[in-house]
Specification:
mainly alpha; two-stranded antiparallel ribbon; 7 strands; globular
Amino acid sequence: MSRSTLNATVAAGFLAVSVAILVARANPATSYESSVYAGAPTITWFGFALALAIAVGTCLTCRGRAQGYGIGLGATTVTAIVSLPVIRNYHYAGMGDALTHLGWTRDIVTGGTAPHELFYPGLHAIASTLHFAGGISIERALLIGMVVLFVPFVIFVPLVVRDMAGGGPAVGFAAIVSWMVLPVNNIATHMGIHTNSNALFVVPAVVFALVAYLRRRSTIERLPFGASPFSVLIFLTALALLLVHPQQMFNVVVLIGAISGVQYLARRRFDDHPMIDHPTTYVHTISLGGMFGLWALGNERFRRAAIGLISGLLSQDVGGGSTVDQRGSSLTDIGGSLSELFVKMFLPMAVIGLIVGLSILVVWLRRSSLDREATSFVNYVSLALFPLCGMFLLYFLGTPTMAFRQMGFIYVLLTILAGIALAQFVGGLSRLITTPGANAVTAVVLGTCLVLGLMTVFTSPLIYNPGQHVTEEMVSGYEDGLDHGAEGVPYAGMGYDPYRYDHGINGLAGSDTLSGGSAATGSVNATVFSEGNYSGAYPTGEYYFVVSEWDRTKELEVYEELNFDRAALEGLETEPGANKVISNDEFTMYAVDDEPRATG
């Protein structure tokens, strides 16, 4: 392909993504959307698809600056997809932790809480700065902050691989795999305002600083007192990661500690090896471990989480097996299956994991074509996977949610290794067939994985989990309900505890727990409620029943009335003991009493 044709093709890709963004911006969400994908205009997805096709082709076939254009195009497109809630003017997104983070940020803005009083104030500080500097709402500032923390992932993954493998096809492959956003599994890591997940996207920046420190051994690039600028970069990026979420910082400490262990063994065993020439990471391991310890051990939330993990390990009924069995049974009841869900959610992860695993095996068998320097970096990361996977198993036995968060970190490292593994795979395949044929096969495999990966970045009915779009009407309804409810009367949701909205609306300043709000809350008993026994569906008999459009979509459409009957919900309209007290297009609140009140 000539230079002019290539430039025109890449320009067409950038034009396509620009048009896609403009069309999406011109068609904002006007009501609750259960799917980011279905809500965006078809032209938007056509533009994104064209841009990604050009980006993938450029990354596979070009080198140098031209490959860089393809990487930039793909990174821009994926960032635009991640930014759709911002582009299409969502009021907010997230019904769980996201609302608690909204409350914390609101506390910082109003002065009720100082940033350093939070265990992980990074995202909240970014959002507060955007709110004050840009004059935007706190909700929108948090959504933009989510995107800001995502960008380092698509930038630094190819940069890390370039430093590890010296450039070439591995960089392009790494970029493509990064666009699949494999660390998001929608079980415990999410694309949203979820600081543990947001921190995953900052990890490649720390790894880049680490690889730069190990590889670039220039003696003239020194700071005062002989400090390496790359050591300073490691500490600064690690500090940023610590402020976003300490769990991922701890994983980085384990990673660097494992590298230190490998370096120590290499120095005892070999006389001539690239690892011997690398500067040691002993000081970094101790310093970053101390930084984490000082930050975490003095925090009550960290201590509670540690106690919860130990309790889980000692309990017989806690673990991932029972959770999988329960979800498998529920999926069968609504016409789905675990195998179908696995293909949708985990097939790209399985394919990339298999390719990386085989590549590591080839390296260990000394059948790889990598040079000794690149092989050393592959060994650093692959050997660090042993303690990291051990932690995954420990979490799985104790607190399964933490296990899937750990899986997110592991897949950050696998995404990096995937670039090198795929380059070796294509090199071997081209010797069996032809280089164009190998590129074509790889393009089909990666293209399929890319589509599946991006289809499940956000939750949607496709994976039996409706999108958590929070509309202004929902917030307004909850705010009115919480402000005007009778004192002492609890609020009960339909399969959802509404205390999170209390967090988001009123903040958490002065609260001693994250599992409740300023008012008593809970959820109704689904079986009793569906039988029409509304007052008996909640322990107090008298309560406020709150239901939003998200609840209706989840329980009646996605779950196909598995838990709640539509007829029972509609029966509230004529129930003498239930009075509708607040209602708009997205939210309804009923006052339910076991003793109907006279009217008139």
